[in-house]
Amino acid sequence: MKRLVLCLRIIGGDSYVGGLNGVVNAYCAHKSDFEENGFRPEIYSYSLPERLDIKFGPLNNILYAICQRHDAKKKFRGCTDAVFHIHTSRGQMFVRDVLLARAMSRMGIKTVMTIHVGSIDTVFKGTGLLKNMLIKIMSRYISAVLFMSNEVRGEFIRAGLDEKKARTLYNFYDLPEAADENGLLSCKGGITLRAVYFGSLNREKGIRELLEAMERTEGVTLDICGSATESGFEGWFDGKCAELKDKVKYHGYVGGKEKYGLLKRADILLLPSYREGFPISTLEGIASGCALVITPAGAMKEVYTDKNAVFVRPGSAGDIADALAELCKNRVRLREMQKNNIRYSAQFTVNKHIASL
Predict the structure, then answer these.
(1) How many helices and strands, by DSSP H and E, does the chain display?
(2) What is the pLDDT of residue 64?
(3) How confident is the model at residue 53 (pLDDT cuts 50, 70, 90)?
(4) Cα-flanking dihedrals φ and ψ of residue 324, to 5°?
(5) 4: burial class by Cβ within 10 Å (0-12, 13-18, 19+)?
(6) pLDDT at 231
(7) pLDDT at position 155 over 90
(8) In terms of DSSP H, where are the helices of 142-232?
(9) Can you point out the beta strands (E) in the chain?
(10) 2-169 CATH
(11) Which of 35, 176, 214, 242 has the greatest number of C-beta atoms within 10 Å?
């Protein structure tokens, strides 16, 4: 049985940022699915020794890259039957991970990389020598580069990535209970509809427009779950939630059974992001029988249609308010979307994702 080394930098704290942590944790929770395909997953997460952590960003990044490669070479030297699966996203993390992939490949270890972003622009700031160099390294040394949407895959190919190595692998959901249509639908459809939002609290997620839409919406309450990730945004958010009183309830970060309980009781899942890769929260929403109100960001426009979702323009509070009003008024359409989504979600189980991987 081959070793599948899942490489990422584990980020602590209660946050939806770094959804790649959740993906890797789900992989490890489903080891038997990997073993059926001949792989034994394990996590490799490197941290700088405290004596080297000098708390100065640029120098810390250089030290981390050097020490991580040294540590990985020592741990995996001679492991030519292993597959090194690096999970990465943007900025200095991306640079370090591409250089690590080259080092592993030069040791004879097959390397795969999954890039968890919604746009190439979040990985590279503009053009330049560094971008061209990293894409050449990826094309030469990485066996397969996996993306969460065809759109981002195309952006990397146009930037020079070898098309034969670029693949799209959509995200998955991993909930504690299998989707039960009758049971889920029996929890929904009250006089007042319940909407839910899961994600980071920042401008790019469309939170400002979402709360502005709730100001002009009647017949809907909103549960918001997540942590602030933008400096200065929390004060505005707290003030707006206080103004909206009983219309909006902020739960902070939630997970596990509490999260699934909110999903089961919700009629609608909202995600008006400016940009996305393929948010797992939408898959959790459809598997829990929620209709979607979303923007056509990232993979969402590739995967969902008007049978699953009402699409709104990024940055438009008016579109969100109109979508909520339509679903409040047209309960037949709402129920059909909920039924369609429960059935459609069967294509995105963690088991099917692992088999495709």
Answers:
(1) 15, 12
(2) 84
(3) low
(4) -65, -40
(5) buried
(6) 78
(7) yes
(8) 150-158, 181-185, 207-215
(9) 2-7, 39-44, 83-88, 110-115, 144-147, 166-168, 193-198, 220-225, 248-252, 268-271, 291-294, 309-311
(10) 3.40.50.2000
(11) 214
CA 118, 119, 122 angle in degrees (round to 5)? 100
Per DSSP, the residues of 219-243 read SEEEEEE--B-STTHHHHHHHHHHH
251-254, long-range: CB within 8 Å, 24+ apart, which pairs? 251/223, 251/224, 251/225, 252/14, 252/225, 252/226, 252/227, 253/14, 253/15, 253/16, 253/225, 253/226, 253/227, 254/198, 254/225
CATH superfamily, with its number, for domain 181-347: Glycogen Phosphorylase B; (3.40.50.2000)
How many whole angstroms separate alpha carbon 14 and alpha carbon 20? 14
Query: What does the pLDDT look like over 234-263, one tens digit per residue?
Result: 888 889 999 999 999 999 999 888 999 999
Q: Same CATH topology for 2-169 and 181-347?
A: yes
Give the separation between CA 272 and CA 311, rounded to whole angstroms: 9
Residue 284 burial (CB < 10 Å; 0-12/13-18/19+)? buried
Q: How many CB atoms lie within 10 A of CB 154?
A: 16
The 10 Å Cβ neighbour count of residue 170 is 20
Q: Which amino acid is at 284?
A: E
Q: What angle do CA 270, 152, 323 make, to 5 degrees?
A: 20
| Terminal-residue alpha carbon distance, the chain | 16
Domain ranges in the chain? 2-169, 181-347
Residue type, 33: D
Distance CA 201, CA 236 (A): 11
pLDDT tens, residue by residue, 306-324: 999 999 999 999 999 999 9
